[in-house]
Amino acid sequence: MGQEEEKFGYKGGYGLELIVDLKGCNLSDLSKEKLQRFFVELCDLIKMTRHGEPFYWEDTSDIPHLRGISGFQFIETSNVVCHPLPMLNAVYLNIFSCKSFNTDDALKYCVEFWGAISEVHSVIPRT
């Protein structure tokens, strides 16, 4: 496999997506600043270049379990999306990149950062 193939793509595919559902998280201190720290530290860990500042959306609807602050971070090779839901003590994450990354390291960091009691995840090669 050539150097370019090792750097970009995953086993000849277009990319790799890590989908993570975290439960039992303590989100009492959820804020845009905490989400910012999450994106910066995660991207540094998995060696992804962030593009610009994250975008945030705060749900203040009448649907209590959806209330919270979500964030979206563009990276050079795609994006990281984070949906913390305080009422459910849950965080839902997607990390997608056409540059390969260590999904085990990313998963471990996410669990520790959000203080999750349990996690369910999938790793999907994008073709």
TrEMBL record:
<keyword id="KW-0068">Autocatalytic cleavage</keyword>
<protein>
    <recommendedName>
        <fullName>S-adenosylmethionine decarboxylase</fullName>
    </recommendedName>
</protein>
<keyword id="KW-0210">Decarboxylase</keyword>
<dbReference type="GO" id="GO:0008295">
    <property type="term" value="P:spermidine biosynthetic process"/>
</dbReference>
<dbReference type="GO" id="GO:0004014">
    <property type="term" value="F:adenosylmethionine decarboxylase activity"/>
</dbReference>
<keyword id="KW-0456">Lyase</keyword>
<keyword id="KW-0670">Pyruvate</keyword>
<keyword id="KW-0704">Schiff base</keyword>
<dbReference type="InterPro" id="IPR016067">
    <property type="entry name" value="S-AdoMet_deCO2ase_core"/>
</dbReference>
<keyword id="KW-0865">Zymogen</keyword>
<dbReference type="InterPro" id="IPR003826">
    <property type="entry name" value="AdoMetDC_fam_prok"/>
</dbReference>
<keyword id="KW-0620">Polyamine biosynthesis</keyword>
<keyword id="KW-0745">Spermidine biosynthesis</keyword>
<dbReference type="Pfam" id="PF02675">
    <property type="entry name" value="AdoMet_dc"/>
</dbReference>
